[in-house]
Amino acid sequence: MPTIVVEVMPKPELLDPAGKAVAGALHRLGHDHVTDVRIGKRFELSVDTVDDELLKSIEKVAADMLSNSVIETVLSVEVLDESPAGETH
C-alpha cells in the first residue's frame, strides 16, 4: 500500500521556540557542534493507489489542512512506497 509523506516546517523567518529549547538542551549535554534546530511535522498518509490527480489533491490538503500557511511551509509531498510489500525499487 503506498504511503504519501507530507513534510511541514515553520517558515524560516519565524522563531521556533521548540527548536531553540532542543538546541539549548543539546548544548547543555555537550553537543556544541549543533548550531540550530528547527522542529517540523511529518504526516504519513496511506492510500490505495497513487496517480497525478491524487497527488494534486494531497498537495491541496497539505496546504489547507495539514499546515498553517501563515507560519508554516509545506516542504514536500512525496510517495514513500508504491511497491507491493517485500519489493524494493
TrEMBL record:
Family in the record: Belongs to the PurS family.
Source organism (scientific name): Microcella pacifica
Protein name: Phosphoribosylformylglycinamidine synthase subunit PurS
Compartment annotation: Cytoplasm
GO biological process terms held by the UniProt record: 'de novo' IMP biosynthetic process
Annotated gene: purS
Presence of keyword Nucleotidyltransferase: no
Function, as annotated: Part of the phosphoribosylformylglycinamidine synthase complex involved in the purines biosynthetic pathway. Catalyzes the ATP-dependent conversion of formylglycinamide ribonucleotide (FGAR) and glutamine to yield formylglycinamidine ribonucleotide (FGAM) and glutamate. The FGAM synthase complex is composed of three subunits. PurQ produces an ammonia molecule by converting glutamine to glutamate. PurL transfers the ammonia molecule to FGAR to form FGAM in an ATP-dependent manner.
GO molecular function, one term: ATP binding
Gene3D superfamilies (alphabetical): Phosphoribosylformylglycinamidine synthase subunit PurS
EC number: 6.3.5.3
